[in-house]
Design goal:
With about 130 residues, this protein is mainly β. It is about 0% helix and about 50% strand.
Length: about 130
């Protein structure tokens, strides 16, 4: 929020509320950019085809709420956005037999209304579907 700080002074024994004062200019205090704290899955990895995997991100900070999350998944063809920016901090994927191989998941976070690509990101690291 926005704040001002003021100091009042008076002589000892004075009945006035103050005799002199000084004020700061407006001070703006914000939480700063959003920061991802964790990215966790509900299952142990590697996983097998047909196993539903839910990834959940936790973040803090940001200058406006709710925070916005975007999820990207990597496989042998490269990175693909699998869930566009929204307030939903989880992504669910059920790999098929065609998904056997190495993958990674990345989540991006930003403050609501931000035009930045992201303020913070976190990656799962490479995991396998066997």
């Amino acid at each position: 929020g926005s704040y001002y700080i003021q100091a009042w002074a008076r002589q000892v024994g004075s009945s006035l509320a103050y005799e002199v004062f000084r004020s700061t200019n407006q001070l703006v205090v914000s939480q700063g950019p959003a920061q991802l704290v964790s990215l966790t899955s509900n299952v142990s990895l590697p996983a097998t085809p047909g196993t539903t995997i839910t990834w959940t991100a936790a973040a803090s900070g940001g200058t406006a709420g709710p925070l916005q999350y975007q999820f990207w998944r990597w496989d042998s063809t490269g990175w693909v956005m699998v869930q566009n920016y929204s307030p939903l901090n989880s992504y669910t994927w059920t790999p098929t037999a065609g998904d056997v191989g190495d993958h990674a998941l990345q989540v991006w976070v930003r403050s609501a209304g931000s035009s930045a690509a992201y303020e913070s990101y976190k990656s799962s690291g490479i995991f396998s579907i066997n």
